[in-house]
User: Fold Aminopeptidase N from Sinisalibacter lacisalsi.
Amino acid sequence: PQAIRLADYAPPNWLVNEVQLTFRLAPRATRVLSRIRFRPNPEAGGRAFFLHGEHLKLIRASVDGAEISPRLVDGGLEADVPDAPFTWEAEVEIDPEANTALEGLYLSNGMYCTQCEAEGFRRITFYPDRPDVMAPFTVRIEGPEPVLLSNGNPTASGAGWAEWTDPWPKPAYLFALVAGDLVALEDSFTTMSGREVTLKLWVRPGDEHKTEFAMEALKKSMRWDEEVYGREYDLDIFQIVAVSDFNMGAMENKGLNIFNTSAVLASPDTSTDANFERIEAIVAHEYFHNWTGNRITCRDWFQLSLKEGLTVFRDQSFTADMRPGGVSRIEDVMALRGRQFREDNGPLAHQVQPDSFVEINNFYTATIYEKGAEVIRMLKTLVGDAAYRDALDLYFARHDGEACTIDDWLKVFEDATGRDLAQFRLWYKQAGTPRLDVTEDWDGANYTLTFRQHMPATPGQNEKKPMVIPIATGLLGPNGDEVVPTTVLEMTEAEQSFTFEGLAARPVPSILRGFSAPVILNRETSPEERAFLLAHDTDPFNKWEAGRALAKDVLIAMITGEEPPLAAYLGALAAMLRDEGQSPAFRALALRLPGEDDIAQTLFDANVTPDPARIHDAAETLRQEVAEHLQDMLPRLAAECVVAEPFAPTGEQAGQRALALEVLKLTTRLDGGKAAAAMFESAGNMTLSLGALGCLLDAEKGEDALAAFAAKWQGDALVMDKWFMMQVVHAAPEKAAATAEALTAHPAFNMKNPNRFRAVFGALAMNAAGFHHASGKGYDLLADWIIRLDPLNPQIAARMSSAFETWKRYDADRQAQIRAALERIKASENLSRDTGEMVGRILA
Ligand code: HT7
Ligand code: ZN
Assistant:
């Protein structure tokens, strides 16, 4: 398949004035009638008329009322049309029931729903399915389903039909339709200008009790966007629909967001604190897209991070405001390192603004989303809060209603701040994670930090230029006082020094506070200094980072056979836990060890071939050491974390429960699972119940609890996803593949449901020592199932193949096994463009 290139962008030949659609719903043969007013685009280079269309049966077509026979070509149709505005009409037939790819119009549990981003609308009707063609839509839906929904405001309805009108011009990827037997939680919101907006959250009957939390999150998001960005909602109604078969988390369709049930339904009995936090963030994310994505959209898919990076940055800022204490920043960075740094370090590394792609669905990545958000965070750090807000105001004023580029975005910042952002633009165009080496110098009064930046080669990019790196730095005096508050050092050269003058004593630096740039910081530091920062740093991120770095030093030394700084680590950890000034949420995060995948990458960077089994053993040994060292403190800590009040999904209570579970994990190593069994019995919420189950599985004493859990929750698909996932994540390395395989034979396993598929195979990939077990069984099993899934759902199959992206880190035997697995996928018959591209890039 041919690559699509940014350099080949050409404006559309035809623009659309308005779209009228009629849907006659039927599971195997839905008819879609379209009436589209086209006008020539004065900025286009030609008048050739092409409409995208895939998996469509054309029944008839006409131009200005005259029947025509368009030429059906690869990916759509061509027709001869007048050199002036005209009306296109067509009728097509589609088969929602056969649509297992979950793109376009499909059926989920008997309910019709759509997913059009990125290129799903072309599976609904013939259309210029590109984001720079924007138009108002009117949609009439005919069907026996009691609830018939589309974008915009309801304009008419009768028995068996409903009409919706969306006055805001939008690209086709934001189109949505839902029809089924649904019930709604209703509420309302008064906007800052006093308009009343109806809010509806639609679910299947029986799920009503899981809707309240998301509704509250929606109202908080609407208020926050008004207060922080000055953005007001712009229709009479905002609706969310929960769907159980969905490829990603949620979709920001104009006025009619569609959500994966896992990203919206919540109750204390069935959802963990992490679920609540994720739901709040996703509800906010999709809502925020109304301005950053919908009102101002992307010119083409190379600009995807324009909406996604910005909207992730906005949802992260929202979460930080809703859950203060600096903890959400630590969680964001953990996710960034776990997914985006991993991507950057392997064959799938790509720019925040790629130059080419084969299948756009493969580019909804951590780099586009999370690194894109980091880039915006850096921009804000560099220009300052006030100038950032000015620039955003200018962005909305200048580009409302347009389909824009990342260059448009940077130009707004240049115009609003007077800064030249040519060098900053490299963050969009250079793939890879910069390494930042630091050395220091002290002359008795002046302290100098010297930074050297370098960036490893990534596919197709060997040479890299120096970037602008904002390095937020503070200095601590020997007694732990802050002698220089946070200052942003602006690095622009390959090597650059910064001097702090006139200090009374040699300071301890706290570098990259708040993780002010997405880089890997390398600095030779003693265990004592790390312990000092864990005790005294005023920046919550760097405080946590010091403990994590110390834990990493211990693990790496254990693996490479050097003397680990164990005493320093255990002492620092105990001191941190005794410090009641630290929130339970912070202490819980500080107790967690770095992930095994993170250790593997660090070893690889240090030219040591990582052995997943050894890494796992080292982590197990260290956890045991920690448990024994903290033994005397654990009962007191456990008592401290008991939540006396009724369950509430607040950050505060979540922090207490998180610490309680970290303590339980350590206690399980000492009591063989007694406390965990008691917790499992008495837990009044899913967070503690699942945490206790995890401890029991780790202690290989989970059989009874698993059976009880399944008996209780067999009717709840989202909870059963957890049941599947836990068994694989907590399987011993030698049993992980067999456990996953056995679960695929369970009657409740359904490969067509992305949540269930991910619960088993996403979990297998997460169990690093299990997936990379020397037997190669993990690789073979995943390859088998990618091959089986690909014809049904290429998007998910392709995504799952990224589990292999780290293969070049490992020893020759593992590399040979993974290569064989990838070659087998590659050779399978009729492999999709999605999976073909991913496997090709991983193997290259
Ligand atoms: N903008 C959306 C991205 C998306 C998607 C969502 C659901 C299913 C398939 C999808 N393909 C692309 C989600 C978001 O970023 O908000
Ligand atoms: Zn998004």
